[in-house]
Amino acid sequence: MSSRTKIKALLESGKTDIDVTVKGWVRTFRNNQFIALNDGSTNNNLQIVVDFENTDPALLKRITTGAALSVSGKLVASLGKGQSVDVKATSIEILGDSDPEKYPLQPKKHSLEFLREIAHLRFRTNTFGAIFRVRNTLSFAIHTFFQERGFVYLHTPVITASDAEGAGETFHVTNFDLANPPKTETGEIDFKQDFFGRATNLTVSGQLEGELGAMALSDIYTFGPTFRAENSNTTRHLAEFWMIEPEMAFYDLKDNADLAEELLKYVIRYALDKNKDDIEFLSQRLLDEEKQKPQQDRSELNLLEKLQFCLDNNFERLTYTEAIEILKESTPNKKKKFQYLIEGWGTDLQSEHERYLVEKHFKKPVILTDYPKEIKSFYMRQNDDGKTVAAMDILFPGIGEIVGGSQREERLDKLEQRMDEIGIPKDELWWYLDTRRYGGCPHAGFGLGFERLVLFVTGMGNIRDVIPFPRFPKNAEF
Ligand code: 4AD
Ligand code: MG
């Protein structure tokens, strides 16, 4: 084990006059004397005071922004403002040089767009350090929440033959020789043979496999990458994103909504406790950004207040039909009424409608239930009205849909009838239908988009900034 101490631990130790070794990367080097060193354990840099008169000038020249250093010295109470302790260096070793002429990160504020271009280096900025520490905490919080409640973490496959959502937005998985692919009798590429003789794709959701687990283990959850080949260049969509999908036997729609609300509040509170300084930093960053906007466009609450507000209030619950009534009555910007006046009941909500409900009407998270069956997936439980299904979407301020879920159709005849109506081949999902044949029971589950959760908690505006290696159209280099 290295005898090095992490900077966060040093700053929190409250100790002084001890010998320490720290390792990290130079953020700035002022007056040949003060190094701001960061090792990623916290946003707070450690100030290293260099005895420049007794240090080799050639070494001083190599202390540049981005260089990796090992520093040994004494931890002392700081005389400067802004930090409680400094390290008076007795020895400095350069572990890795960084050519200041070429290093793309200068000690100044870079735009998020620029940093997206150099995503391999953006981890080294305060903003991305904070984001990825919060992301880490949230994923740990999710496991903790489910583990404390006796849920079993189930690993569902990434390569699968099913398109769980039936939306056709799948990436093919192929192992055939692209130069010489198998052909059909009519000479086209035979995609039915693309994975050792079987058509397969990357999973869009682990739900169907998750349901198999829940029909024996009672409560399970998945947490893994999912893939959607939608060519959507928005600030809310990725081609590869992580999803948490709990599935619970003997749950109805209300139990499902209760669990989702409890989970969201739990993980937000967890991050606020564990990463308060990072969230405060991100909140301040947002305030600085907001100052550039005209007064009327600035948000009323800062990030910390927004998160707290979410914890302190019950999520509003209403049906899709009730939401449409509200939208019909509302005129969001004086001149223009919502499209619903023309299209009416049965159409899917667009994000502007979702955001109106959450941000303007209720001003808090909303759980919408009982959507028209035509706009939802085949596996959702049909309601007695013959028109709607026991679906739920959770809508968050600034985000729109963060959770999508439902009570599942456990009645074999109803499920088969719906699959026939939509044209989903029953023989391909024989294994799924078996759970309804043998000991099927009421059950429910939902999918939480992990990046949308991280977006909400960090207050960031673009989903590409909350995943280390974003995948979106034409972006997959590293
Ligand atoms: O609403 P979706 O498509 O639901 C399902 O996949 C269900 N099988 C879940 C279930 O019931 N087990 O996706 C669930 C959530 C969305 O609410 C959203 O937060 C996120 O996944 N999501 C995306 N996140 C980023 N990029 C995309 N392209 C996303 N598509 C969905
Ligand atoms: Mg959805």
UniProtKB/TrEMBL annotation:
This is Asparagine--tRNA ligase. It catalyses: tRNA(Asn) + L-asparagine + ATP = L-asparaginyl-tRNA(Asn) + AMP + diphosphate + H(+). It comes from the Bacteria. One of its GO terms (biological process) is asparaginyl-tRNA aminoacylation. Signal peptide: none annotated. Its EC number is 6.1.1.22. GO terms for cellular component: cytoplasm. Belongs to the class-II aminoacyl-tRNA synthetase family. Keywords: Aminoacyl-tRNA synthetase, ATP-binding, Cytoplasm, Ligase, Nucleotide-binding, Protein biosynthesis. Residues 132-468 form the Aminoacyl-transfer RNA synthetases class-II family profile domain. GO terms for molecular function: asparagine-tRNA ligase activity; ATP binding; nucleic acid binding. Homodimer. SUPFAM superfamilies: Class II aaRS and biotin synthetases, Nucleic acid-binding proteins. Transmembrane segments: none annotated. Pfam families: tRNA-synt_2, tRNA_anti-codon. It comes from Mucilaginibacter terrigena. PROSITE patterns: AA_TRNA_LIGASE_II. PANTHER family: ASPARAGINE--TRNA LIGASE, MITOCHONDRIAL-RELATED (PTHR22594:SF34), ASPARTYL/LYSYL-TRNA SYNTHETASE (PTHR22594). The keyword Transferase does not apply. It is found in: Cytoplasm.
